[in-house]
Specification:
- With 122 residues, the protein is mainly alpha-helical.
- It is 58% helix and 5% strand.
- The chain is built from seven helices and two strands.
- It has a two-stranded antiparallel sheet.
C-alpha cells in the first residue's frame, strides 16, 4: 500500500468533490479578456486545492497523463494525483485548459475512483 493511500481520507475526497461542484457551477462566470480567461474564485480555489497535499504529485510525468486517464478504472491514488496535477498545470500551456477540464467528466472519474480506493483500503 502506498503512503498516499494512508494519507487520503474520505474528508479529502468530500472536499475535492465540494470544491469541484462549486467550480463547475461557476463556469458561466468566466470572463474572457482577449484570448485569456479570467477565472472566478471557485475555479481558482479548486485548482489551488488540487495543487496541495494530498492531491498534488510533483513527480508526475505529463506525457503519461492520457494513459492514466484511459486506465482510470484501475488507477491507484498516485495516478489520480498525477491526473489532478496535470489538470492544474495545463493552464500554463493552453489558455482555457481549466475550463475544459471542469467541463469534461475527468474530475468526476477521479472522485469516483478515489472513493473506491478508500472503501477498499478501510
Amino acid at each position: 500500500m502506498d503512503n498516499i493511500e494512508n494519507q487520503v481520507t474520505t474528508s479529502d475526497v468530500d472536499e475535492l468533490e465540494r470544491l469541484y461542484l462549486k467550480a463547475k457551477k461557476s463556469l458561466r462566470e468566466i470572463e474572457w479578456v482577449g484570448f485569456y480567461p479570467r477565472y472566478p474564485e471557485p475555479i481558482s480555489s479548486f485548482m489551488k486545492y488540487i495543487t496541495s497535499s494530498p492531491w498534488c504529485n510533483p513527480n508526475y510525468k505529463p506525457e503519461e497523463t492520457k494513459k492514466l486517464i484511459d486506465e482510470i478504472e484501475t488507477a491507484d491514488l498516485i495516478s489520480l494525483r498525477s491526473i489532478l496535477t496535470a489538470a492544474s498545470r495545463g493552464e500554463r500551456f493552453c489558455d482555457g485548459h481549466w475550463k475544459s477540464v471542469i467541463e469534461s467528466e475527468r474530475i468526476e472519474s477521479v472522485i469516483k475512483r478515489a472513493r473506491e480506493i478508500i472503501i477498499v483500503n478501510k
